[in-house]
Write a structure and sequence with these properties.
The chain is 7% helix and 41% strand. By secondary structure, it is mainly β. A hairpin with an 8-residue loop joins strand 3 and strand 4.
Amino acid sequence: MAEFKVVVSDPDAGRTTQVEVDGQNANRFLGRELGEEVDGGAVGLDGATLELAGGSDNAGRPLRADVSGSALKELLLEGGVGFDPSRDGERKRVTVRGREISEAVAQINVKIVDSDADFDDLTGDG
């Protein structure tokens, strides 16, 4: 059974919160790809639309939007998600995971793109 930590960010408010999802709510994310939109009901934000922005697997390897599928892949990177070069021209071979959400993913990063709901309802500050 799938189980994820979902990090929900509200770009307008500049705030984030973390929600644990499992069971039927976690199944709403399986098979989706980065950039797709999902219903916010899975994380308790009914009436909100969430965009899948990123994530990482159980070993901390990042999801990359330019790698198809959900398998691991070794890439020679010059920068971007998974590698931050310390000098010009530096490259490094890094293992990353594809853009599809699978059971191997431990954390999913989402952002609120459209909402009738209040972010404070999710965080309990409201």
